[in-house]
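A common beginner's mistake is to predict each chain separately and then try to dock the pieces by hand. The better habit, illustrated here, is to supply every component at once so that their relative placement is modeled jointly.
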Amino acid sequence: MIAAYLLLLMPLAGVVFFALFGHRPRIGRINIKFNAFALLMSLWLALNVHESGTLVSEGLYFLVDSFNVYLIVLTAFVGLTTSIFSAPYMRHEQQKGRLTEKRLRLYYSMYQGFMFAMYLVLTTNNMGILWVAMEAATLATVLLVSLYRTPESIEAAWKYFILCGVGIAQAMFGTVLLYYAAMQISDAENALAWTVLIQNASQLDPEILEISFVFMLVGYGTKIGLVPLHNWLPDAHSEGPTPMSAVLSGLLLNDALYAVVRNKMLVDGATQSHIAGYLMMGFGLMSFLVAAIFLHRQQDIKRLFSYSSIEHMGLMTFAFGMGTPFATFAALLHMTVHSLTKSAIFVTVGHAAQIAGTQRIEKIRGLIKTQPSVGWGLLIGTLTIAGFPPFGVFTSEFLVLLATMQSYPWLTPFLLLGIGLACAGLFRNIQPMVYGKRPEGQQAVEANLWPVIIHLVLVLWLGLSIPQSLSDWFNQATILISGSAPL
Amino acid sequence: MNWIFAFIQTLLFIALAPLLVGWVKWWKCRLQNRKAPSLLQPYRDLLKLTHKQPLVSHTASWLFIATPYIVFSAMILAASVVPLISIDLPTAASADVIVLVGFFAFARFFQALAGMDVGTAFGGMGASREMTISTLAEPAMLMAIFTLTMTASSTNLASAIGYVLDQGIVLRPSFVFALFAMILVAIAETGRIPVDNPATHLELTMIHEAMILEYSGRHLALIEWASAIKLMLYGVLISNIFFPWGIAVDFAPSALGAALLWLLLKLAVLAVFLAIAETALAKMRLFRVQEFLSFAYLLGLLGLLSHIILEASR
Amino acid sequence: MELIKLDFYTQGVLSIAALIGLTSFLMLGQGRLLRLIFVFALQGLLLVLATALAGYSMGNFHLYISASITLVLKVFLIPWMLHKQVYKLNLHRDVEALKNNTAVMLGGATLVVFSYYVLHPVIQNTSVVLVNALAVGLSVVLLGMLLMISHRHAIAHVVGFMSIENGLFFAAIVSTRGMPMVVELGIAFDVLVAAILFGIFFLHISRSIDSLDVDQMNRLNEVDQ
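With all components supplied together, the output reads:
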């Protein structure tokens, strides 16, 4: 448990530290160190959980079990690699004069603030605190979206703030209802503790919980980016600084989905029916298909990949909604590989945009000639996210398809259609960017592609063979969520 | 005995009305840092007016002369059905709230006719404005009153007040709305700020005053007096319906005395609020009066709805 | 259920619920920013009353604390900040012409009915009072959203946002007599930070588009033209 406390304290200290010293020249490295420390702590925590099972802190404030510990490690990992990328990126932005020292301080401080909110979402045992931390994550990132202070970025940030704020208010109403239902069976102080709730789930009033879940799904679903509540997502991703897009896409969306899944476990326990699952499947499938279609109409490279995020989040929501052990396993795997791939893609996209000096797809051309590493990175990243074998995304999508065929065979064509559409949508845009005619005077930029390489190699590894220990880990999480082991 | 008492109570009503007007004026003057006239000034004004010769335009018909008497007697009749210090009124049993609203409408109808009768521009303008406002105010008032009558299951004022009294102190959401609606309607109907200004004779802003501009002498006295009674009627309605505590339920002298004191206290407080509101607010444009009154209507409607949704037994 | 058979607390909560619902409607139809902010402060005050009443009837000390937090935050601090912004940006004389006011009001009424419909299943196993109060809480939330849709001004949006918080808070107070203290403090902190962020945003928006009319923020689209 000490590891969890340290994990939370470190970014909190980081908020203050970077608010004071965030403008120093070598500050990017210190940010890396902070995140590296967090990763170490998360690994220690994972070891703890591996040895002694589920950990619950005194006073029931924190909970670490096999489901969230894997997300914690993933969060810390993506947080670290993104910070490695962000150090030269932000320096480049500052040199170009897009950022002042003050904003740099804000950026680093809020980066840690966001990481803190993410860790809190994942470690807390209290459904109320979960909500507070989700809201805090919005608040931490909203000023980062408008970091460049262009009219577009301010508009995007405002949209993000308002839509997510209003959306998440629905989740609060759901939490109030949940608390009300819990008050009937438990004492007031612990009535929101997830461990207490899940133990007594069968006694909770099913009707209240159903209503509560609808509100939760709408609320946290706004953060996941489920259609039709996805409007803020492409804007916020496209207008903010690229490292922010990477962590928003790779982490925030996952954590929102995590909150929904936690609630689904409660509702399933109370209602003994599959209503929550059907809702998630419906929303998920709709997001998946709509986003796949929208991919074809994008002219901004970051918007393109934000829609791809919506598409994949939709798929995960769908898989978690199916709720069979097999599907849950697939969803967990997909969460991992998507986070890794998507943050890698955003890193390369950031460099690509810096090379071309714009985010307009039609102006980005001939990357592979100007800077082969970025060009290849983008190409391989896109191949990965589109679900080509032998990468991990292929494995997880294949598993989702198999699970669908097992449980709801008539839905398989829709999934295949979505995957096909998305693949076409991505490649019609990516192909000219990578291979097209190189514009005059295009210069290579200082790029740190190690995060991309590490991520993509990991995804490749997960596609070729999942290590025994990792699959055990996923198995445990699957047992926790769906009640039994896959296969 | 009952009838005699009802008679005395009505007389009391008529007698006290100018005092209330004087009290409001006194407070307004004090709040505006002016030297206040005596509380009895309205009586003196009425007396002075009765001594003056009424001048009647030669284009005026009989309607013009009859109107002050009709208005005044309508107000007396209205005053006789409203429980003032006791709810055990034989007159109250014979007429309910709807009749009361009818009396008001009746008086207003004749006043508007008389305003147009002389043929001056101001009279016609005032009459049309007065009718516009009252058409908007009346539904709002009825809504507020229906809220009360639905709670008490009776349109009879005396038994409704008795019902509220019986229940003791109960916080009813619907009554809160109805009270606000009633206050807004009362302000509009008695021609106070921010709807109308009783003290102005500016051409373009006056409403009620424009209508009675041609009256003089004892005719004017009667109309002014009737207006005073109307103000007091609304005051009594508000205080006795929404805060009925203190009103006498029988004819025991001690109860009646206490009731009278309570009533005076309630009216005095209400009048102070009116004076404060009149000092603090500015008169609004005529075209915004409909907003004001539709808000009153909304409040009345909400009162009715919240009675049905929140309070009615299922 | 007869109203008179209920205790004083319930009667009080019902009355306050009705008034809070009313303030939401008042905000919906209000085109003047200063009045909008005033009504919002009034709603906050009603909320404080409800909280204090709940605290009194329960003898629960922590509700008094949350009542005072609400008092400071929602009745004084946030309205004061918004007030200052309005004067600073010289907007206090502007009146926003509201489009389709009637339709919006009818929509608001529909939302209230909808809230009752949604929460109706809860009726079967709890008191009617609670359902009413919860339904009012939900309708305040939904009306706040409608306010944000129908108004174009950024400050009106913030008022709507905050009034949504009010609705949630009211629902929490009435249904469960307050969330646990940690959660409540967390929410209060979030609201405070949000309020400060909104202040910063007004500045940025007015600098970038020279107005606070959010309809002018239309550069970003679902699909690029």
